[in-house]
Amino acid sequence: MKRQWLLFSQVVTVLVAIWFVVITLKPEWLNLRNTAVNGVTLIEAAPNIPGAPMPGSLSSAAKVASPAVVSIATTQANAPAHPFHNDPWFRFFYGDREDEAPQQGLGSGVIVSPEGYILTNNHVIEGAAEIQVTLSDSRRAIAQVIGADPDTDLAILRITLDRLPVIALGNSDTAQVGDRVLAIGNPFGVGQTVTSGIVSALGRNQLGINTFENFIQTDAAINPGNSGGALVDVNGHLIGINTAIYSRSGGNMGIGFAIPVSTARQVLEGIVRDGQVVRGWVGIEPMALTPELAETFGLKQTEGVIVTGVLQNGPAANAGLRPGDLLLKVADQPVRNVGELLTQVASLTPGKSAKLEVLRRNQNLSLDVTPSQRPKPKLQK
Questions:
Q1: pTM of the predicted model, to two decimals?
Q2: Which helix (H) or strand (E) holds 117?
Q3: Is 162 one of the annotated active-site residues of the chain?
Q4: Is 85 a catalytic residue?
Q5: Which of 44, 57, 81, 318 has a C-alpha 20 to 30 A away from that of 247?
Q6: Which domains are assigned to the chain?
Q7: Active site residue 233
């Protein structure tokens, strides 16, 4: 044992001596260099090759994705001007009605097609009289609204320019907590900005932001103006549309939410193909399973959605679903809360049969349901 220890100590001593000689006489071998300043010798790292990324840099992802991220400026006209607005006496007594001037809005968007289709948030362009898109190369164009889906807070715009940069769509379904991501947009109108972070959580819902919620949570800095911008992976591929932040001050606090690209793609294809997003509907009234409800219905489950009402002659009723049933799966996808249930049912194809797995009186059942198309919400008067 003493011999081995002696040998180890001698090897370490020799290696330290070699390192000292190299760093003193040949520092360039270690990508270092000596610099003498007023008699003081400093050891500096050799400069990087011009244009080469720093170690650990995400610049390649930013270069790939940034050209396809655009700035969106909207003009929203307020209520019509008062009929005596131009009357000098009216203006003398009431002044200039500044609230009647057009309002400006800022946001971001992502070019996803060479044909000029742009994904953004519905709240960015809602009620806009004019929408101007500015590309990273400073080109500008007036955008046309192809369609919007308030239930997911997504909208599709289109511009007519040639040689458009297009972002590649990634796979948000394979994203994992801890993955590095970049958020690209135009915060506060200062110009295109790239921030980095990680995926903090997946499947966030019940936030009260949209009807259908399945957010990617990230700590990449997202601020006002980033809405509609891109959340990309380390390859520069789009995995989400930045849409909201959790904040007490109005600025970034490290909790941002992005709509997965899988949802955005479904909305894009539906609006371009059919002019609207077609979703499934089965006609039930769901409620989250609570300990009190579980005790009332004699259930031992801790997850699932309890059916409290079934629409007469609706798809669920025709499939045999009853009040008191506990929904466990929709089309082989687990259902743990009302948000997941809404998302899973909405993703069903109207007219195409799907399976519902339910628990009824502690007995597992499999029911075949043929969903209808989700009706449009009635406008409130």
A1: 0.71
A2: strand 117-121
A3: no
A4: no
A5: 57
A6: 2-44 (no CATH), 61-81+93-158 (2.40.10.10), 172-274 (2.40.10.10), 280-373 (2.30.42.10)
A7: no
